Every structure is written in structure tokens, then in C-alpha cells.
Amino acid sequence: MAAQVRRAADRFRTAVEGRSTAHSFSFGAHYEPDNLALGPLVAHNDEVLPPGTGYAEHRHTGLEIVTWVVSGALRHRDDRGHEVVVPAGAVQRLDAAAGVAHSEVAAADDPTRFVQSWLRLDAADDPDAAAATTYAWTAVEPVAGGWVDLAGGEGLPLRTQGATLLLGVPGGDGLAIPDAPLAHLFVVSGRVAVGREVLGDGDALRTSDHEPLSVTAVAGDPRLLLWLLPVVG
């Protein structure tokens, strides 16, 4: 796989009690054996929750969960004592390697949209690592014509070695996709061009060992989420 486009219209969708979820990978009842993961990334869900709706307390194990709130606000509660409302423009990270129960509910008057990624994580991996903070969130300002680290790198610490999530805003000269063994580019909004491909809201591009690639704005005010990922055994 040098570069592969995954269109928003082709993704699995789940609609329950007003919630809408678009899945980038095989998920739950939507089983696709050739689309299980990209490196450690096993889920990449684009969620829209009507006000006051969401997910009652449920449990995760063996995962590192990273959430970018696009609009609205998301109330997070977990069995470790964290209860926060994460606003639009903020990223949160939850270490669920050893197991955690949490709930997520839209906490704004308008629908809440967030993009959530799950990274497969073994609880035995670096158990004493300084990055192993159980829960954290922070607001992040986008940088026009550049990338800013959301998680990994200079963003929130990650335990998944070699993984970084970036927020990008293409400028007039384009925005280079950094080198990485694997990359997952997701268009949150707007339209962009990558080579000959034009990507719109909800489209994604996956790469491995890619030639130099640049993203240029085509329409709207594009916002991009980019995972740089390691190859896993």
C-alpha cells in the first residue's frame, strides 16, 4: 500500500438513538477482514451526538484512546475519578491499557462532533513510562499553514511508541505530510488535494513508505487530522 483513499461515503455507519458514527476500520457488527487496523490504530470514528445523548458507562481494556472535539462539548466521566467537559478545539487522551470504565455525553446545546482514535496497547508496555498519565486533555490552537502536535511529539504524552497525532491547516504553499512508516490523513472539514486526489469532509488517505506528499487547500477552510504511525508486528 503506497497510498489508498477511503471515501466518507464508503465507510461503515452506525445510527443509534440519534447518534451517528462513521467508522474508518472494521468495527463491531461492521466486520471487514481486510480493514482491521493500520499499525496500532484499530479504530478511527467520526461521531455526532445530539445534545444530552452519548454513551453510558462502558469498559475498555488494552487501548489508548485519543479524542479530538470538533464542535460542541463532550462530558467525560470515568471510574478513576475524572469528570470534565472537554470543549471544541481540545484533545483528550485516556490510558485504558489496564482497563477503565467511562461515559461520554454531549454537553452542549448544539450537536457535538468528535473524532476518536483507538490505539492497541499492551498494559505491559513501558509500565513505568513517564508518558503513562491515566487521563489528560488540553485545548490546542491550529497553526495556519502548518501542523501542530495534538498527542505524541510535543502534544499530550502517548505510550504508543512512534505514534503522533497532528492537526493541520493547509496554507497557500501546501502542507507536506511528514515521513513515517504509516500515515492516516483525515479531512475534518473543507476540501484538499493530495497529488491528483481531491478529498472532502470525512475522506481519508492511508500511506506506507510514501513518496513526498503535499496537501493543498481546494475549498472551504480545511482542517486535517494526521496520524503518523509505526509498523507493529
List keywords for this structure.
single chain; mainly beta; eight-stranded antiparallel beta sheet; 0% helix; 55% strand
Walkthrough of the structure:
- This protein has 233 residues and is mainly β.
- It has a single domain (3-229), classed as Jelly Rolls (Sandwich), CATH 2.60.120.
- 0% of the residues lie in helices and 55% in strands.
- It has strands at residues 3-6, 12-16, 19-23, 41-49, 54-60, 63-71, 73-78, 83-87, 90-96, 100-106, 112-120, 135-139, 146-151, 164-169, 175-176, 182-194, 197-199, 204-208, 214-229.
- The strands form three sheets. Strands 1, 13, 14, 15, 16, 17, 18 and 19 form an eight-stranded antiparallel sheet that branches.
- Strand 16 and strand 17 (197-199) form a beta hairpin.
- The radius of gyration is 17 Å and the shape is globular.
- The mean pLDDT is 91.
DSSP, total strands: 19
- CATH class label: Mainly Beta
The major β-sheet equals: 8 strands, antiparallel
Described by the principal axes of the CA atoms, the overall outline is globular
CATH topology: Jelly Rolls
Overall structural class, as computed from helix and strand content, comes to mainly beta
Query: What is the CATH architecture descriptor?
Result: Sandwich
Q: Which percent range describes the beta-strand content?
A: over 45%
Question: What's the number of structural domains?
Answer: 1
Distance between the termini: 17 Å
Number of helices: 0
Radius of gyration: 17 Å
